[in-house]
Amino acid sequence: MTSLLSLRARLLIGAVLWTVGLLVLSSVALTRVMTVHPRAPIRVHRALEGYLPVVVACACMVIGFLQVRRGLSAVDALRRNLGALHTGEARRLEGAYPSEVQPLVDDLNTLLEQRDRAVERAIAKAGDLAHGLKTPLAVIAHEADRAAAAGAGEVAESVHQQVDRMRRQVDYHLAHARAASGRAAGQQCAVRESVEGLVRALTRLHADRQLTIDVSVDRALLVQGRREDIDEMLGNILDNACRFARSRVAVAAASFDNVAVVTIDDDGPGLDPALRAAVLQRGVRADESGPGSGLGLAIVRNLVELYGATIALSASPLGGLRVQLRLST
């Protein structure tokens, strides 16, 4: 439930009511004194003559204003620091706060540190699991190569298909587990750096096709999230675009109202509108003629949901498919 009054308004109302109460009590006290001591008003008037009382009163008002302002500045600083924490500019709440607020800040910093450590442990375990599974898969693939050399080509091809499928399953579940462990507070990723790294890898992978991959992304554009997760999302989308493109893929990004919109276009055959929602489901593939398990876009969808982002498929001006990914900045 949101309060209708701000802290400033409550302090102002409280100060006004306190002052009114003091004035009423002072009037009652002065009236009592005047009743008992008729000559008291003359003495009070003489005591208040001159500039000294005015100076004292002004000094009290200025000191009181500065004290209230100082107290509120700590609240403003806390709000700014929380905003920096939310946008990823900071990893913890810095600064000194009033004694009533400092314990809360310390507890929050402790929770953030514990959360970061838990996320790091989860990622490390996921990496260990990936390493432990991929080594046996590499051995199986090597044995399949030996079987193919021995003349069992059909069996070797079947084993290779299953190994590829298991690798994709491992990648899918590890990506989901890593993202489900939670987005680490304060982490940001430069979209341009992520895209450039992926483009270099995909250019080498599709070197025989001589694909052109255009990149139009501002280097200053940052989005909230781990580099690994952003690479996972953009990598799967770009991989699909390169596989289906005839000659050109375009990547562009822009930022609007704290949201970064990353657009990936290709000049491939496109995708039937009826399939655009279906291909985001796990295991559904638009093209059954090529290798793959249909997990790529499903990984993207899961990461998108965990990050509170959105993904949309539509027709591309290049003639193929357009994928738009919206991430928080």
Q: Which of globular, elongated, flat, extended, rod-shaped describes the shape?
A: elongated
Helix share of residues?
55-70%
- One letter per element, helices H and strands E, the order comes to HHHHHEHEEHEEHEE
The CATH superfamily label of the largest domain reads Histidine kinase-like ATPase, C-terminal domain
Walk me through the structure.
A hairpin with a 2-residue loop joins strand 4 (248-256) and strand 5. The protein has eight helices and seven strands, in the order αααααβαββαββαββ. Helix 4 runs antiparallel to helix 5 (153-180) and helix 5 (153-180) runs parallel beside helix 8 (296-306). With 329 residues, the chain is α+β, with helices and mostly antiparallel strands. The protein has two domains: 7-97, no CATH class; 187-329, Histidine kinase-like ATPase, C-terminal domain (Heat Shock Protein 90), CATH 3.30.565.10. Residues 283-295 have low confidence and may be disordered. It is elongated and about 125 Å long. The strands form two sheets. It has a five-stranded mixed β-sheet, covered by helices on one side. It has a two-stranded antiparallel sheet with strand order 1-3. It has helices at 7-36, 40-47, 52-87, 102-149, 153-180, 191-205, 227-244, 296-306, and strands at 188-190, 212-216, 222-224, 248-256, 259-266, 310-315, 321-328.
